[in-house]
Structure formats: C-alpha cells, structure tokens
Amino acid sequence: MKQNITAVLLSGGTASRFWPLLDKNTFVFQGKEFLYWHYLQLIRTGIDTCIVVTNESTNNSIRSITVPEELRVSYAIQKGQGMGQAVAALDGKLFEEPIIILNASDYYSDSFMTSFTQKITKEEKMVLGAVRMSTYFPGGYLRFNADKTVAEIIEKPKKGTEPSDMVTIVADYFPNASVFIDAIKKHGSDAIGGYEKALSA
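Now predict its structure.
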C-alpha cells in the first residue's frame, strides 16, 4: 500500500569502522550496491519518495547507484559531521511533509518496516524506533517518565547507569519535517549526540 511518507536515508557518515573496505552504501552484495537493496525495500514498503543525504567525498558514488523507476530520489550534501548535520542538510528541501529517517547503512527486516510504517500512518506525533537490550550496548538509551512517555535520550551512559533497557535505532518518524529540522538547527549542531539532543528538545 502506498505511504504518503518521504524516506530520508542518511549516508553521509565517514564509514570509519568499515575500513579498509569502501563505503558501506556502495559495497556490492549479489551484484548490486547495498543502497540499491535499500531502495527496493522502500518500494516494497509502499514508499516512493526518498532523499539520500551524502557527504562531499561520497556524493558522486552515491549518485551513480541505479535508482529503480518506481522510486523518486533526490540528494542533499551534509557539510559537518554527525546525524544532526545530516538532518540540517535537509533545510529547504523538506517542509511540512511527514518523513521517516533511516540510516542507509542499517537494514531492517521487511516485517519490521511494514509494521513500523503501518503504525506511523496512524500517528500524529513523533515515533522513535528502539530495541530492548539484555546486555549493555554503547548507544542511546530511552529514559521514561512515570507515565511511560519518553523523557529524553541518554547517549552512551556508563555501564550500570542505563536509564532503561531500551536502545534507540535510527528508524524515526516525524509528522512534520520542518518542526524537527528547526529543532536540529537549535539543538543538533554537535557532531556527537546532536541528533539525540534535538529529539529530546
């Protein structure tokens, strides 16, 4: 079923943990670049519009990846480092439309993507993706209020001080893109944790 959502794929990272291999998004699996398989999954999920955020060093290689004809793709170049700067690159390209932000280097199951998009189409507020962890993971942990609503995201707390067992993943829905972009401009300039600060604003 077609979804009235623009997908934002963040592919502007430096991929330092992937060294000495090439950028993850252009790495070839079964004859096609990893990002191409992402494109196909978006189509299967019912999404037909996508913005890919690149950086200056990967922009040309990302743009060279074939785009399936069922998907409309445009590009934005992030100038600084971090997810906050990636979202800041969307300023002037997105306005009041609903968006889902995904890491281009993360690939979730079709069942997750389908259930997630079905849920968010019924929501008029932000929806964050998260997973329950049984052991410590150096990620962003959700801290909840007494009524179980999310109070804030604590980025990489020390082991033993985690506020919950729920760790965020980059699968975030915003019913109005401009509201989150404005929050990024106010709170999200830090290379480390800037995106999470904007989410908590």
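The mean pLDDT is 89.
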